[in-house]
Amino acid sequence: MKILEERIEKDGRILGTNVLKVDSFLNHQVDPDLMMQLGEEFYRRFKDQNITKILTVESSGIAPAVAAGLQFHVPVVFARKHKSLTLKDNLYTSTVYSYTKQTSNEIAISHRFLNDNDRVLVIDDFLANGQAVEGLMDIINQAGATLCGVGIVIEKSFQKGRQLLDERGVHVESLARIKAFEDGKIVFGPDEYEQNH
Amino acid sequence: MKILEERIEKDGRILGTNVLKVDSFLNHQVDPDLMMQLGEEFYRRFKDQNITKILTVESSGIAPAVAAGLQFHVPVVFARKHKSLTLKDNLYTSTVYSYTKQTSNEIAISHRFLNDNDRVLVIDDFLANGQAVEGLMDIINQAGATLCGVGIVIEKSFQKGRQLLDERGVHVESLARIKAFEDGKIVFGPDEYEQNH
């Protein structure tokens, strides 16, 4: 998605070898008009899937997920993160390891908000190692719901998450795909969707 | 705001003496179309204030804040919560006590996203004891920015937050004001804005 790639080039900051900070428009400060454009693009790519629910994880996924929800007109559920849950009554839970923070969190969604009639679109801000998406897929599985696709704002294709989802046959659409960081520059990968539509 | 009060009556659940659960449309599952209507209402009430930035706290504030941002076309910054911060470089921080969880969190906003030219609208999902808003006001003060108003989705008027903000002369607009829970029923208070417009 051209305007997103341009925004990343303009405002993203590369830290170390594989961290991209986009906290000026995506996950600390949020540009709502850009979110709206991302939501429209997710809709374009998944509108034929009869989505009934959008799932994400707090906090950074909420803004793009709600923007997508505005297009699909379906509820958005954000999984809550906890260090560890003692009371798991009426909750689907899964454990998510964060490579960045080197900690595990449990994520939880109430039984009331996901069931076996749901056709789910997962939305998240980043796809790196794929741990958060895997946790949500685990929860979708527990609920007997159907995963229809995964919509990602920024994919770091050089980490293992994308490959892992491809191997499982998941329909992934990433609005920006980063192939590498080279000499402080961002190298974007191909966007098959734009090439084919 | 009539449609919000009706939604609270329909889907809200009263727990114990003073807890209202609205996790089916506001803070776990989110109704994006309702968020949009809330955003439009916040815009109606604060549009003359030359707002340059919307501030909220993760996670539950993000959806209504981004919806408001879509109307004002200004950036939305959500303060990050931490148990305790060791590294405070380039961050405004404040300590927020949660009566519900009986724990203290530090909230933090990067220096890069708030400065003394900003005219700030604070948005949050609930106003109860006012701790989160006070923490944001502390941060706004540290940045030398101007607080132009506070927009709340649901105010529990019987707790001390509203009075505290009124005493400080803060312009507060709460889209639903709950005066009391009586016999398992919600008693709404007056909406001065709707009475005067």
UniProtKB/TrEMBL annotation, chains A, B:
It comes from the Bacteria. InterPro entries: PRTase-like, PRTase_dom, Pur/Pyrimidine_PRTase, Xanthine_PRibTrfase. Pfam families: Pribosyltran. One of its GO terms (molecular function) is xanthine phosphoribosyltransferase activity. Belongs to the purine/pyrimidine phosphoribosyltransferase family. Xpt subfamily. 5-phospho-alpha-D-ribose 1-diphosphate binds at A128, N129, G130, Q131, A132. The gene is xpt. It comes from Candidatus Paralactobacillus gallistercoris. It is found in: Cytoplasm. GO terms for biological process: purine ribonucleoside salvage; xanthine metabolic process; XMP salvage. Pathway: Purine metabolism; XMP biosynthesis via salvage pathway; XMP from xanthine: step 1/1. This is Xanthine phosphoribosyltransferase.
